[in-house]
Amino acid sequence: MENQTIISAQGVNFWYGDYHALRDISLDMEAHTVTAFIGPSGCGKSTFLRLLNRMNDLVDGARLEGRILIEGEDIYARGVMVDELRKRVGMVFQKPNPFPKTIFENIAYGLRVNGVRDKAFIESRVEESLKGAALWGEVKDKLKKPAFELSGGQQQRLCIARALAVQPSILLMDEPASALDPISTSKIEELIYELKTEYTIVIVTHNMQQAARVSDRTAFFYLGELIEYDETKKIFLNPEKAQTQNYITGRFG
Amino acid sequence: MSTLINTKYDRRKRRTQGIAFWVFRLMSLAVVAILVWILGFLVVKGIGVVNWEFLTSMPEDGMTKGGILPAIVGTLCLVAGSMVFAFPIGVMSGIYINEYAPNNWLVKFIRVMTNNLSSIPSIVFGLFGMALFVNTLGFGDSILAGSLTLGLLVLPVVIRTTEEALKAIDNSYRNASLALGATKLQTIRKVVLPMAFPNIITGLILSVGRVSGETAPILFTVAAYFLPKLPTSIFDQVMALPYHLYVLATSGTDIQASRPMAYGTALVLILIVLLINLLANGLRAWFGKKVKTN
User: Fold this and answer.
1) Are B175 and A55 inside 8 Å of each other by CB?
2) Would the CB atoms of A53 and B170 count as touching at under 8 Å?
3) Does domain A5-96+168-248 correspond to CATH entry 3.40.605.10?
4) Which of A32, A128, A199, B70 has its CA 20 to 30 A from that of A1?
5) pLDDT tens by residue, A180-215
6) Residues 70-99, chain B: which have Cβ within 8 Å of A?
7) Nearest 5°: phi and psi at B74?
8) Where are the domains of chain A?
9) CB neighbourhood size of A206 (10 A)
10) Among residues of chain A, what percentage have pLDDT more than 90?
């Protein structure tokens, strides 16, 4: 599995209406790695993340040039089934957003909308997913309770479990810990470290230390351009570009 | 020498606050008082004639005696009939406008038109209903024609409340569902609608109140002046409470003698609306609870 490219962006330009949000982005990400996107607000890192599971399709006036390949397939090619793509590329959002359903039904949702009816299968997948998100021990006795009764950090891990249940190969995380307290944050970070054995993870974060702690490679975005993309160690210890250096040392941003 | 204390200014400010507060309080009390007055008036004047016989028998002696059963049944038929038309159509167009429609001139036009629709006087709906349903489509004076006319009248209310109810659902729920590979329709059916349903029911409550009280739209489309029998099909004419009330109060055979019957009819009409509202509220609460624990 070493050095196997799973996500490949090739000359990606992206517009919201007239606004040129991403300029000529090309980068490859390898399977079973954690890639962090960093950069100041409005630099395009979240936009780029949302291109990877076509969530930007929902925005009026969005337009893309270039190609994005996931597992070798052009995801913007004609005839691509977006819901199938999203099963392969899961997403965890900034704010925990469990459905107003029970803990169990939250996890089962992704299976049910994909036509799974087998009760025993759903039950075992729910357990598996909750274990995968390091939440099983805390909720195994209250699966029938509303998800809203969980704490913020638990809700976010529930959202991760919910994404895992449909067995994606890639997990996109859009500032998954920015709404959480430090203890919940470190739990999420530990989780990311464990998850990368099975999933490829792309994480957008404003937290420089977090990027340094969890990621293998880091991409620095600025004003819609990919300034530098390299091993995280290199980016943080010995960046090539002055802009990168300035940003990670907090001189602007 | 504190600068925080300025007795003169302070006293004046407090007095203004106090007066404002009392004005607001009096106004809201006045509203309640008027409502209580109306209700009390109707109860006092009407309770004398309202009994089991009044509710379950036909009008007699030129509507000065007997009951109002056909009018009660007629109004219930019209409420049910108009909801059968207005609720699904209104909810579906509300869903289209809020969830599917692109933000273009057509949709803006639809929105403006639905708003305008709700400001058309109800007598105009009545005339339109007569022209279209009674004459052109040949339904005659019938429950069908009356229900369709009333349905049109409340359609904007249903559409608007559906739209508002959907708008209140945070986009993060839609995104979460779509990101799991759910289709848009699945997202609407399994996530958005259940969350919005309690508020959509509010639209239903408002419409039921409106429909059961309207007189003008049914005047030329369904309402009978005097028809002492129960309807057997949707092509029958019926009596209806608001129109019956109007007849008893202004154009009965003996207005003085039928006055108590009029008050009784008004009381029954209000009680029916109240009952339906309570029922819908119960439904709303039940759905709200179901959504949270499902």
Assistant:
1) yes
2) no
3) no
4) A128
5) 888 989 989 999 999 999 999 999 999 899 999 999
6) none
7) -60, -45
8) 5-96+168-248
9) 15
10) 85
Query: What are the tens digits of pLDDT across the range B205-225?
Result: 888 888 998 999 999 998 888
| Predicted confidence (pLDDT) per residue in A29-75, tens digit | 999 999 999 999 889 999 999 999 999 887 888 899 999 999 999 99
Q: From the CA of B114, how many Å to the nearest CA of chain A?
A: 24
Architecture of domain B64-293 in this structure: Orthogonal Bundle (1.10)
Q: How far apart, in whole angstroms, are the C-alpha atoms of residue B162 and residue B168?
A: 10
- The SS3 call for residue A14 is strand
Q: Between chains, do A87 and B181 touch, taking CB under 8 Å as contact?
A: yes
Nearest C-alpha in B relative to A168:
B180
Interface of B with A in 109-168 (CB under 8 A): none
In total, the C-beta contacts within 8 angstroms joining chain A to chain B are: 74
* Minimal C-alpha gap between A47 and chain B (Å): 14
**pLDDT value of position A1:** 43
For chain B, residues with pLDDT lower than 50 are none
Residues 5-64, chain B: which have Cβ within 8 Å of A?
none
Domain boundaries, chain B: 64-293
Sheet-wide strand order for A19-30: A73-74, A62-70, A5-16, A19-30, A225-231, A217-222, A34-38, A200-204, A170-174, A89-92
